[in-house]
Amino acid sequence: MVLLLVPxxxxxxxxxxxxxxxxxxxxxxxxxxxxxxxxxxxxNAVVTKDIPANCTVVSVNKIICRNNRI
Length: 70
Fold this sequence. Notes:
By secondary structure, the protein is mainly beta. The chain has strands at about 5, 15, 20-25, 30, 35, 40, 45, 55-60, 60-65. The strands form three sheets. The protein has a four-stranded mixed β-sheet with strand order 3-6-8-9, with no helix packed on it. A three-stranded parallel β-sheet has the order 1-4-7, with no helix packed on it. The protein has a two-stranded parallel ribbon with strand order 2-5.
């Protein structure tokens, strides 16, 4: 189960999820944030801010960006 939560008093909209995003079990996406294309949200991670493309999130907003160069 994934929890997408928008507090009423925040005045914000709902989270925006891009293409090819994997969201692990128990992850929480809170408030008006954008998860860009190609991201991975780890199990039980908490996301409260925008995540750049092709990044991984673990724990609470711990962002690990991947370099796509070969």
